[in-house]
Amino acid sequence: MHPLNVPVALALIASAQCSGTASINVQRLRSLSLLPLIPVTEDTSCNPGRICHARVNTGGVRAKRAVFGALQSRLAVMAARGPAPVDTAGNDKELFHSQWRRLPLQPGEFKKTVMEQVVPGSVYTFEQQLGVFDVVVNIRMTALVLKEGLMLVNPIAPTPECVGLVQAIERKHGPIKYLLLPTTQVEHKVNLAPFVDAFPHAEVWSVRRQWSFPPIPLSWIQFFPNKIDGYLEPEITQYAPFSAEVEVKLLDISLPGTIPTPFQEAALYHKPSRSLLVTDAVISVPRSPPKIIENSPQSLLKIAGVWNDPDKAEKDEKEKKYQGQRQIPMQSAAAALNKVNTKQNRNLGWAKTVLLALFLSPASVSKDLKRFAQSGFVFEEGWENSFEALLKKVLVVSPLVSELVFKPQGAKVLEWAEDVATWSFQRVIPAHFAVARRAGPKNFLEAFEFLRKNGGEVSAGAKSNFAAGAMPTIPGTLKEDYDVLSTIARIA
């Protein structure tokens, strides 16, 4: 299984638990590989200016599309525990994403967007929620201001609200000229085609080695645009119209496993703002939750263990009444939420959310399934130490990425990181967690130190690293925090 399909697998497990299913159907679990269906494009060619175009055969096969539409609808029903609540304030239509079933994760069909100006008049970010099992983090699209207009990197769900925010900066800085997909990862590429529909005049640039498993023709589904105007490779982008303002360095590796799959990530350097843009290569973990998560805190408060589902509370209260027990006046859901919605509780929920998102099952989380069924994620004493360790560095590589992606290809990854560090950036903008507003090449390279050992020799891989008694990827975290990820790496 692709490592970033793990949240989707958890969604199925969650849905099975919620429906009272005693066991997980293995075939259904395997079918999750059908969700990130973006096959290698067909009829690829390059023009004399080295700008490559990929056109897709879009003829016919209505029946096949109907089959996949039905399949996607069934998968959507299996989304995790139901959507995370969103404070819509009566503006449901502005937050509605009609194509959310393509990757049916929280918060479901209604997605709030928060825009922030990172560099005045030069860099803007747009964030939405993404998660499963109430483990909800942020996903970020970045807008770069160029001389000829705007460049959008890693499109998110184009809800009416999101499109309206983008159009507002269009009026100020000019039209969207480029839509960039610098990754092969499903949670980012799933929104490319819908965003192209919203801004059809923009050129579309992507990393080349998009993949699917099984290898189904792109004409069967509608996840990817019909035309790719260029590929994010240095030998191509040096001739691109934006080359004077944006440079590209490509990480191109293959993930090990029974069926090797491509992993590509293009780092972008926006020269006018001296900003480095990455997708999943590094993250910056904040102590407090991002604004988009804090604005709808129900998931944080559930993970913190201080907030119960109001529907369950109402059911329990009705049961008490039925049994003739003394009734306690029920609080409204809003009043109950306000009582526990404190900064301290939100930060508590965020710290636990970070550990679950990065380690899947950190050492401090109880592995007792009965306790989980009754109380959700139960953290043992001392869990805070691993979270504090994540805060000590400006940038870190997510353990999910380091263990399942980077360690098996350590030499190539480190070579790419050192190449990226030749740029003179002063901030790093990842696609998740916080923007590292003061981070340079030194901070970036420090995040990859786990790939070195014995005086600078590049690590050969995860297995040899741990067999030799190497320290965990992130100093201060526990070796046991990585146990589940190590297991996945062994059986993938």
Please give a structural write-up:
- The protein is about 35% helix and about 15% strand.
- With about 500 residues, the protein is α/β, with parallel strands linked by helices.
- A hairpin with a 2-residue loop joins strand 4 and strand 5.
- Helix 10 packs across helix 13 (about 345-360) and helix 16 (about 400-405) runs parallel beside helix 20.
- The protein is globular.
Condensed summary:
This protein is of the alpha/beta class and 492 residues long. Helix content is 35%, strand content 17%. α10 crosses α13 and α16 packs parallel to α20.
Query: What proportion strand?
Result: 15-25%
Runs in which pLDDT lies below 50 for 5 or more consecutive residues are 1-84, 318-330, 460-470
Q: Separation of termini?
A: 6 Å
Helicity, in percent? Answer: 25-40%
> How many alpha or pi helices?
20
Largest sheet properties: 7 strands, mixed
> What class do helices, strands and sheet pairing give?
alpha/beta
Inertia-based shape = globular
Identify the notable features of this structure and list them briefly.
four-stranded mixed beta sheet, globular, 35% helix, alpha/beta, 492 residues, disordered N terminus
How do the strands and helices of this protein lay out in sequence?
Layout: H1 6-18, H2 26-30, E1 44-46, E2 52-55, H3 62-77, H4 92-95, E3 114-119, E4 123-132, E5 135-146, E6 149-153, H5 160-173, E7 176-181, H6 186-189, H7 192-198, E8 203-206, E9 227-228, E10 230-231, H8 234-237, E11 246-255, E12 261-270, E13 275-277, H9 291-294, H10 298-304, H11 310-322, H12 333-340, H13 343-359, H14 369-375, H15 384-391, H16 399-406, H17 410-420, E14 427-429, H18 441-446, E15 452-453, E16 457-458, H19 462-467, H20 483-491
Parallel strand pairs: 6-7, 7-8, 8-10, 13-14
Antiparallel strand pairs: 1-2, 2-9, 3-4, 4-5, 5-6, 11-12, 12-13, 15-16
